[in-house]
Amino acid sequence: MPGLLFGAAVRLRGWTLAAAAPALTYGLVAIGGLLLGELGFSWTLVTFGAWVLVASAVLFAVTALVRRRWPARADDDGPRVSRRGHLVVGAGVAIGLAVGAVTFLRGISSLNRLAQDWDAPHHGNLVRWLAEHHTSLVSTAGAIGNQPENTSYFYPATYHQLLALLLDQFGVTLPPLLNSGALATVLVWPVGIAAMGLAWGLPARMVAPAAAVSTWFSPFPYDSLWRGPLWPYVAGIALLPAVLALVTYLIRPRGITGPVAVAVSVAALVGLQPSLAFILAGLLGVVFLACLFRLVPVEWKRAWPTLLAVGVLAAAAAVPLILPSMRSAEGVAAMVWPSEATPAGAFGQMLTFSGVVDFPQWWIGLPALFGMVVMVRRRLMVWMVGVWLAFGGLYAVTVSLEGALIQRLTGYFYNDHWRLAVMLPLPGSIGFGVAVVAFGTWVVDRYRDRVPALGRSPWAPVAVSVVFFLLIGLISGAYIGRNSARLAANYQNGPTVSDGELAAYRWLAGHVRPGERVMNDVFDGSGWLYAMAKVEPVEWTFYGTPAGTPSNYLVKNLNKLNTDPEVREDLTELKVRYVIVGRGFVRRDNRIASGFVGLDRTAGFTEVFRNSDAVVYEIEGQESVVEAAGVAAGR
Asked: 381: Cβ–Cβ under 8 A, 6 or more apart, which residues?
């Protein structure tokens, strides 16, 4: 809704407005979060709402002034779509939305289910931190990254800032909030595909099947919601079709609408995940080349002021957001992921738009490949073929080869081929839509003489295309089973965090005093403690703490309470009275930390809670740990 209001204020309309609304909302969060935070305002729905209203009112006035001063530069000469065309596209979008919602909800089984993979507790903790502290400044959240002394802590936080506004508001608890955010990302995608196709002049009859099939592909969004989950990154990828639709406002200028909307959207992408800036640069580079080679008509004399304006505005919006990420760029680029395919297999995955799978998505991949050929021959969004070749080729070499050059090219993406595979469904959806219509037209032209009924009705190609689409949907099942099963693998009752462990967290929430922390193992999922129960753990992340720190020492030596004086000293320094031990671990090869072995047989650890999945111990002599730590600090 914030983006919808802002987009309408700068004169976006129709499908482009609907698709751009989420991007503009994230952009307003990214810019507003930085601005309000630096000015010392609390991060609440009220302050954010006031920021949205002020920004919308100012830009409405500026847009109106520009249109009045330079009306010739604000004419709407974009593609026209009939009412019937809008209905056709709406039907395709409805199918895409339905498949996406059913697949996601079936995969996670319940909005109350927590994701079990590596990144999930960190996302939950950051949302909770920003909400509890009413701040939009992620620099205050070093504690959740096991860096309590780091006052310049950085993690891309636009996604978390938005969710933090809603946490515990109107009865919204964390698990449904996290899952609803992920579901919203899925639902943004088909609307964006529709808006992009129409904005670039693709006929409605092609746009409809493209939007309908957009949520059938595995590489996006399901693979990155199952693995990670990469919620902020996936949210940013979901905005790319809308941003590409807005790009048409730059090559066919309509006042300052395009520069403003694109700049705010760029802020959204950078705020969600800085690496998205490089993906956007690649997309814009392909579009620019298409313009240079006249594959996309553009009047440079008319467009250059708009292009200059968007460059200035985008830099002003994005640079302050991306600069803090430079400190962690070296660590990101140093990540290395092993290959998961042979070169031949990777090429097949690219050709079928399938990503990392054992069995390609033939039923939608091969039609999409055929659509790429048709697009080249008919000059339909040819630049999208370039997108497929560029990003698909980069994915193929990354998933199958290793080397310094490849690592340099993909360093911005953690050298992670999964993060590149998400780009396959973008051209794949468009290619499929073109193929469906091309096939229907070909059948009618081929058999017109043999089947006179085909020649008598102008709707015959449409009917054949619909039958072809339905047949593929019936045979493939829209890949709902396959994709929901992929999601379900990491949305179970454990092993990382189970219902039993959550019960232990709730018990701790009722017994831990203000200022106390709970000692926990690194890998057993208890990093969720803060997000789910507002109780601060000693170990916040699966990465643990550096050697030589009190927390790291305790992880290795906690069970030496009675023989090692340093253990008691560290417990007091960290204000620890309780210890929690969970049954499951985030990875199958993880084992209980050495300091937690045999606590049930160690004097000084009194069991105060137990169920099948977790046990909580109270440490004797730590009953007044907060006061004791205060006295020690005073000395």
From this structure: 197, 200, 201, 202, 375, 430
Beta-bridge partner residues of 614: 582
H/E stretch holding 518 reads strand 517-520
With tokens 């929901």, the residue in question is 484
One-letter amino acid identity for 609? F
Q: Does 349 have pLDDT greater than 90?
A: yes
Q: Any idea what DSSP says for residue 607? A: E
What letter represents residue 70's amino acid? W
Confidence of residue 407 (pLDDT cuts 50, 70, 90): confident
Dihedral Cα 95, 96, 101, 104, nearest 10 deg: 130
Q: Reply yes or no on whether the pLDDT at 613 is more than 50.
A: yes
Strand 614-619 with 576-582, pairing: antiparallel
Structure-block tokens of residue 437: 């219509």
- The one-letter amino acid code at 385 reads V
What does each C-alpha distance from 99 to 187, 238, 475, 489, 580 come to in angstroms?
A: 9, 16, 15, 19, 41
Beta bridge partners of 579: 519, 617
Q: Which residue has the tokens 């021959």?
A: 377
| 495-517 average pLDDT score | 97
Asked if residue 418 has pLDDT above 50, the reply is yes
If one counts every other C-beta atom within 10 angstroms of the C-beta of residue 127, the result is: 26
The backbone torsions φ and ψ at residue 364, rounded to the nearest 5 degrees and listed phi first, read: -110, -25
Predicted TM-score (pTM) of this structure = 0.94
> How far is it, in rounded angstroms, from Cα 135 to Cα 129?
8
Angle between helix 83-108 and 480-488 (nearest 10): 40
Distance linking the first and last C-alpha atoms of the chain: 53
What would the two tokens of residue 351 be?
A: 């050709």
The size of the chain, in residues, is 635
Residue bearing tokens 């595979």 = 421
Query: Is pLDDT above 50 for 635?
Result: no
Residue 114 has φ and ψ, to the nearest 5°, of -95, 140
User: What contacts 82, CB < 8 A, 6 or more positions away?
Assistant: 204
Beta-sheet strands, E only, within 127-257: none
pLDDT per residue as tens digits for the range 185-235? 999 999 999 999 999 999 999 999 999 999 999 999 999 999 999 999 999
Q: How far is CA 176 from the centre of its chain?
A: 16
Contact call for residues 21 and 4 (beta carbons, < 8 A): yes
Please tell me the distance from the alpha carbon of residue 585 to that of residue 4, in angstroms, as a whole number.
Answer: 42
Model pLDDT, residue 413? 67
Q: Beta-carbon neighbour count of residue 44 at 10 Å?
A: 16
- Spatial strand order of the sheet with 614-619 comes to 517-520, 576-582, 614-619, 605-610
Confidence of residue 326 (pLDDT cuts 50, 70, 90): confident
Q: Give the tokens for residue 136.
A: 């939009």
* Beta strand 576-582 pairing with 517-520: parallel
Per-residue pLDDT reduced to its tens digit, 514-544? 999 999 999 999 999 999 999 999 999 999 9
Tell me, what DSSP letter sits at residue 310?
Answer: H
Q: Which residues of 175-210 are buried (b: 16+ CB within 10 A; e: fewer)?
A: bebbbebbbebbbbbbbbbbbbbbbbebbbbbbbbb
Question: For residue 404, is pLDDT > 80?
Answer: no
Confidence band, pLDDT 50/70/90 cuts, at residue 357: confident
Residues 258 and 305: their CA atoms lie apart, in Å, by 11
Closest to 525 in 3D by CA, of 539, 509, 506, 510:
539
pLDDT band (50, 70, 90) for residue 446: confident
